[in-house]
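Q: Here's a chain of 189 amino acids. Please give me its 3D structure as tokens.
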Amino acid sequence: MNREDVRRVVARYEKQPIDGRHLVPSAVLIPLLYKDGELHVLLTERTEQVGLHKGQVCFPGGTSQVEDDSLLGTALRETWEETGLRPEDVEVIGEIDDNVVASTGYVITPFVGFIPYPYAFRANKQETKDIFCVPFAVLMDSQRFRHQERVIGEYYYSGPVCDYDGHVIWGATGRMLRRLVDLFDTAAA
């Protein structure tokens, strides 16, 4: 999928509202990039020092703070803190459906944006163990990214899962990626 097709699909999407007023507002950036001419998504692996979701694969992002002017501001600030990606280097193209994490009481607003590549990422060693890219073609492959029921760490999970290069993508991250993949599948049909 070329850059203009991705931009068009995401920009035209009308996100479905949810009632999250009793949940903790948070936001993530779904960073898209082109590496060797192919669409990729950037993900991070959390350290074991963070309070929640230790060692899990996720998008850069976090909880809204008083100083954030918006949830987009939250996503960009947290992305900068966790990866060293400057807000001005992100071309935000839209947002997809909010995602509720019932186990922690968060509602996550995912913003989708293009980022430059290569880039001098700088992992915050307190929060970010690894920064890596996954080819979007892997996520579009229904044999590699599919609904599974399995035990991951201490959790029983039923939902979209993708094993990639030693990383397990699941949970809220898996659900958000599944939504994005479904948008592209629908646009291609």
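Q: Can you summarize the key feature?
A: The first strand starts at residue 24 and ends at 35.
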